[in-house]
UniProtKB/TrEMBL annotation:
InterPro entries: Beta_helix (IPR039448), PbH1 (IPR006626), Pectin_lyas_fold (IPR012334), Pectin_lyase_fold/virulence (IPR011050). This is Right handed beta helix domain-containing protein. It comes from the Bacteria. It holds the Pfam family Beta_helix.
Length: 383
């Protein structure tokens, strides 16, 4: 049960409790509720908000916009080289050129050997002294200046870190992806949740983010309802890292660069229903490492660049097992020179059940093969 308590504070225009169309104004309202300690609601006026850093939400807080007219727009990207190694556990980095960075700005740090996956570090700038940047979260790795060490302002627009009973409602995130540097989906997203639970996103749009649209990692009971994710450079939705009992319903996931729905590593007992997953660059749904016992029903999966449903190549013991697929429409997937599969399962996967699905096959069309199963796949049944 989501907590219903605390005050309601407004952000935006001159009659708001916190005036200003900025990430700083929103965060100031959040911190006011956090100090009170009993949750509450932040209501955002209509308008375009300049987001230089992530809005961090805490237990029991609701962030609610005024519909599509409330737009949180990521500020343009800046980057600079590290001039000294930035070490694990540090809260500072020495850079070549700090101009363009601001206090309150979100950052990521990486080098050529430690980039993507969980190897990036993310934080918010707290102080700038010349070309020395101070920030609020310890670095996760050792980053070498002579290995292409970089610091950019790539960051999430909204994030929940170790939070419970958070709601995000009725707003749009504009990632301004063509003017920003990329960020990996394990450490960030247009909206990002980490080690959190019992959270709900509803009537939210994420558009043109240079990474994954909405990512949640190491979570339980995350609900994403009636949301739209389009034109993300990565995947639309990215549940991962042992996230359990996610519920994704009535969402539109279209024109994302990789998968509409990227299910990644031990995602279990989820329910994915009545979603439209179309025209994504590679896959409609991509599933793999121990992603098991999930239910997919009444989804439309069409027009994706390679395959409608793609089971990744996994080693024995790591397959996506025991998933159920009911009444999905899987058609017109594939490109002129690649893919063309409704369902393509590689590696090992066991005991997946398909009931009442419509899986197209047209040797002369986009989806040339309805189902392609590797020899190592077992227990797939179609009714």
């Amino acid at each position: 049960m989501l907590k219903q308590a605390g005050r309601t504070l407004t952000v935006g225009g001159r009659n708001a409790d916190f005036q200003g169309f900025t990430s700083a104004a929103i965060q100031a309202a959040v911190e006011e509720l956090r100090r009170a300690g009993d949750g509450g609601t932040i209501r955002l006026d209509e308008g375009v908000y300049r987001m230089i850093g992530p809005v961090r939400l805490y237990d029991g807080i609701t962030l609610q916009g005024s519909g599509s007219a409330t737009v949180l727009r990521k500020s343009p990207g800046v980057q600079t080289k590290l001039t000294a190694d930035a070490d694990y556990g540090e809260l500072q980095a020495e850079v070549e050129d700090a101009s363009g960075f601001e206090v309150g700005m979100g950052i990521q740090v990486y080098d050529e050997s430690q980039h993507w996956g969980w190897d990036e570090s993310n934080a918010v700038i707290t102080r700038i002294e010349g070309n020395l940047l101070y920030f609020d979260r310890h670095l996760e790795r050792d980053y070498q200046a002579d290995d292409g060490g970089m610091l950019t302002n790539a960051c999430s627009v909204i994030e929940v870190l170790e939070g419970r009973q958070v709601r995000i409602l009725d707003l749009t995130v504009d990632g301004a992806g063509d003017r920003n540097y990329p960020i990996g989906g394990c450490r960030g997203g247009g909206i990002y949740l980490y080690k959190s639970g019992d959270c709900r996103l509803e009537n939210v749009t994420v558009d043109n983010f240079n990474g994954d649209g909405i990512s949640w990692q190491i979570t339980e009971h995350i609900a994403v309802r009636s949301c739209t994710v389009t034109r993300s450079a990565g995947s639309g939705l990215h549940p991962g890292a042992g996230s359990t009992r996610s519920i994704i319903t009535d969402c539109t996931l279209e024109h994302n660069g990789l998968a509409g729905l990227f299910i990644c590593w031990r995602v279990r007992f989820g329910e994915f229903s009545r979603n439209r997953i179309c025209a994504n660059g590679s896959y409609g749904i991509c599933i793999g490492h121990k992603d098991s016992y999930n239910l997919f029903e009444d989804n439309v999966i069409s027009g994706n660049g390679d395959s409608g449903v793609y089971y990744r190549l996994e080693k024995p013991g790591n397959g996506a097992n025991g998933n159920r697929w009911h009444r999905n429409v899987i058609e017109d997937n594939g490109g002129a020179e690649s893919g063309g599969y409704g369902i393509f399962a590689r590696g090992v996967a066991e005991d997946n059940v398909f009931i009442g699905n419509r899986i197209g096959e047209d040797p002369e069309g986009r989806q040339r093969i309805a189902v392609q199963l590797a020899d190592t796949v077992s227990g797939f049944t179609f009714e």
